[in-house]
């Protein structure tokens, strides 16, 4: 008996600011690719947040980080995430959870997203214990004060941080 291949790949939509991308983000993408055929990393353009790197810089860094992986695509979006996910053919939104505080916030978002677009699933992945403490905010703060963040970010991001902070 032969099985027909599904006509469409299962796409996961991974939204965020990624300012900057960390090893935790990379790990989440790699683990998502075990479950989904492709991952669309979606950079949110949020005028209310003061970003360290521009949207174009973040996109370039992420594309460099995942240059080895053809199943990863990087896009930008404005407006509601569910609309962007739908426009990019996503079956699910993937979110990482570091702890209970993350869950409460993410649960609220997932519930609202389900109300707006019921066919879009939300998948939560727990952060691996070795990356549990890593956040973009922490990386930015430590790097800006001259600390070594080389174990927390990929090489292209480290180079960009060094160029920014010296």
Order of helices and strands: EHEHEHEHEHH
**What is the name of the CATH class?**
Alpha Beta
Specify the number of helices: 6
Overall structural class, as computed from helix and strand content, comes to alpha/beta
- Poorly predicted runs: none
Main sheet overview: 5 strands, parallel
Could you say which overall geometry the principal axes of the C-alpha atoms support? Answer: globular
Can you walk through the features of this model?
The chain has helices spanning 23-32, 55-65, 81-87, 100-116, 136-144, 155-165; strands spanning 11-16, 38-44, 72-77, 92-97, 121-126. It has 166 residues and is an alpha/beta fold. The chain has a 5-stranded parallel sheet with strand order 3-2-1-4-5, sandwiched between helices. The termini are far apart.
Write the layout of secondary structure elements.
Blueprint: E1 11-16, H1 23-32, E2 38-44, H2 55-65, E3 72-77, H3 81-87, E4 92-97, H4 100-116, E5 121-126, H5 136-144, H6 155-165
Parallel strand pairs: 1-2, 1-4, 2-3, 4-5
Helix pairs in contact: 2-6
Task: Give me some keywords for this one.
166 residues; alpha/beta; Rossmann fold; 5-stranded parallel sheet; globular
Task: Give a quick rundown of the structure.
The chain has 166 residues and is an alpha/beta fold.
